[in-house]
Design brief:
By secondary structure, the protein is mainly alpha-helical. It contains ten helices and no strands.
């Protein structure tokens, strides 16, 4: 990566980090582009070279933070798979990734609140397919690679993923933030059982 590209990436990272800190402490509505730019140490005009408006940076932040969650989960899955004598099947890989993400959200409730407040399937779908920062991953590609690596056929795999994401995100929001109807550790076995049922329902035999 050349010096110019490195400088651009540093500015992008600074804007993302600053916006995330402001959005999670004072809310999107009370945060201005001028404030984001000033605290990031970047001219306000430069902001528009990267983002259309503050809602654009909010959406791309969700993509970026979601990508980091998946990236960490996939990296741990790969490390676990190397150590394990037998490779995990598709269903177990999905459960492993979900468990990892749930644990991260449980330990970072600020991130959970931010994502849950601003998440829609359209934004999340973009998060699965769009790289915001250079080190982000395209989870949709990873997802289909996991499917193709197994001797498995799925009916409407994107709908299946949508159902799992909706289930996990709403469950995390209620169980982690409000302990409703129980805390996340109590809910987890039932959550995983339901995810397995969704996968089985979409598996073509």
């Amino acid at each position: 990566m050349g010096k110019l590209e490195t400088n651009k990436q540093q500015k992008l990272t600074s804007l993302l980090n600053t916006a995330f800190n402001l959005f999670t402490t004072q809310g999107v509505a009370k945060t201005s582009i001028a404030e984001i730019s000033q605290k990031a140490g970047i001219a306000k005009g430069t902001f528009y070279l990267y983002f259309k408006d503050k809602y654009d940076i909010r959406n791309r932040l969700i993509s970026h933070e979601s990508s980091k969650l998946f990236k960490n989960a996939v990296a741990d899955l790969e490390e676990f798979s190397i150590k394990k004598d037998e490779p995990l099947g598709f269903e177990e890989k999905i459960i492993f990734i979900i468990n990892h993400i749930v644990d991260e959200l449980n330990s970072n409730q600020t991130l959970l609140t931010f994502i849950s407040k601003n998440l829609s399937w359209g934004i999340f779908k973009e998060a699965l397919t769009t790289k915001v920062a250079s080190d982000d991953i395209n989870f949709k590609d990873v997802y289909y690679e996991m499917i193709n690596a197994e001797d498995i056929s799925l009916e409407e795999p994107e709908i299946m993923l949508f159902l799992i994401v909706e289930l996990v995100s709403s469950t995390c929001y209620s169980a982690i933030l409000y302990k409703e109807p129980a805390d996340i550790d109590t809910i987890k076995p039932y959550l995983f059982k339901t995810v397995r049922a969704i996968i089985k329902e979409h598996t073509i035999r």
